[in-house]
Design goal:
The protein is of the alpha/beta class. It contains eleven helices and seven strands. A five-stranded mixed beta sheet has the order 3-2-1-4-5, with helices on both faces. The protein has a two-stranded antiparallel ribbon with strand order 6-7. Helix 4 (95-109) links the parallel strand 4 (89-92) and strand 5. It is globular, with a radius of gyration of 19 Å. The termini are far apart.
Length: 258
């Protein structure tokens, strides 16, 4: 079953130096852009992370320091990535929890202020886990009856993810062929940031979901403990989390001026 699209959707996959969204970097990115008329375009870039790739990570995706030594840093390809994504919804495998948050960090480091939270995002892994609870290789075999060659290569994983989603639509009649519905079905608990440090209460206000102020509204803590905001901005939190905190603070200041 082909996807019913109202706008393009970009499936993408990252290979990285590790799994820490705040500190690790991209070493390979592959994007498959699918248009409503069925046309597709695909791009894959190797990236110099400007930091060592741990051998244990290279053993997983096969990309070593030597292989990316002469590749461009992410900030040089960031405008091309942004041009592909800016008019699109997003799709990936475990993308809501890892690929999208890490890509958001890399774009912010490249001084491209593109809010990925505003795009619909379909996480094929979440659909898979809610329906079958397996891995990408197993999903590809289960849904497509194919063996995933070159697993952990960004391009192979990206194309397999796209094929798995189409097969999921064929298999599950109750799974609506609509990106907004798929994004809702594949989402986890809603957070204001990607890393899950800032959630929402029943009234829709941003609250801290960690630490000594867990459950307290961000605006109240900023009022009572202004030094805590400064500590958060200087601590090792993701850039996107800091961006959200700054937005809340600016909104609070603007409300006082009105």
């Amino acid at each position: 079953m082909e996807l019913h699209l109202k706008k393009p959707i970009c499936f993408f996959d990252l290979e990285t130096t590790g799994v820490n969204v705040a500190t690790d970097r991209i070493v390979e990115i592959s994007v498959l852009k699918v248009y409503p008329n069925g046309n597709k375009e695909s791009y894959t870039w190797r990236v110099n992370p400007e930091m060592p790739i741990p051998p244990v990570v290279s053993a997983i995706h096969g990309i070593t320091d030597e292989m990316v030594a002469n590749e461009p840093p992410f900030r040089e390809i960031a405008p091309k990535v942004y041009a592909l994504l800016k008019d699109s919804d997003l799709g990936g495998f475990n993308s809501n929890r890892f690929d999208i948050p890490l890509l958001a960090e890399e774009l912010l480091r490249a001084e491209i202020d593109f809010d990925l939270k505003k795009a619909l995002s379909v996480d094929v892994q979440t659909i898979f886990h809610k329906k079958e609870k397996r891995t990408l290789e197993a999903a590809y075999k289960f849904y497509c009856d194919k063996t995933l060659e070159d697993a952990h290569s960004a391009e192979a994983d990206t194309n397999a993810t796209y094929e798995v989603l189409k097969a999921q639509l064929d298999r599950y009649p109750d799974l609506e062929n609509d990106v907004a519905a798929l994004a809702t079905f594949s989402s986890h608990k809603d957070f204001a940031d990607f890393a899950g440090y800032i959630g929402y209460n029943k009234e829709g206000d941003e609250i801290f979901s960690f630490g000594k102020h867990r459950g307290a509204t961000v605006s109240d803590i900023m009022e009572k403990e202004p030094g805590y905001f400064g500590w958060l901005l200087n601590a090792d939190f993701p850039l996107y989390t800091k961006k959200v905190l700054t937005r809340i603070k600016l909104q609070k200041l603007n409300n006082k001026l009105e």
